[in-house]
Design goal:
This protein has about 170 residues and is mainly alpha-helical. Helices cover about 40% and strands about 10% of the residues. It has a three-stranded antiparallel sheet with strand order 1-2-3, with no helix packed on it.
Length: about 170
Amino acid sequence: LYFIAQMTSCPRVSFRRRCHYATRSNRIRMVRTPGNKLTVQRNRKRSQGIHTPWVLGHKRIGGTKALNHTDSRTSNSNGKTVSRAYGGVLSHEQVKDRILRAFLVEEQRLVKRVATAERKYRKDKQRAALKNKKKTDKKSAIAKRVTGKSAPAKKAAPAKPAAAKKVAKK
């Protein structure tokens, strides 16, 4: 039977490695062996695991194992990634935000394009109306000069058949 006790300042055990100070990287726990001897076992530093980048909040990525550098290098990708887009890099919330932002940006571009097309259509329509007005004003001014009074706007006369024109020429 092993007996694990909390590490307290106990003069009965000493550090077994070269560092004899209670630093963060030199934590130990006392263990009673089956031969009733009190010894120490070294605790490894716990890894924080895979996080998102610092600029994106440095949050822990769910579904990944908390491996230290050497274990991370030797282990397979199953514990280091998640099966989705940006699996072992971004959290699910950040991926969701990116997708949403992409849709909103595209929607904004479409709205802008429609607005510019609408503006161009209105402008062209206004220009055409102004051009027609100038044309009719010019015609009425010429007619006024010729007759001396304002002439009513004439409608276009129906076109004569082509055969009648040829006969008239002969």
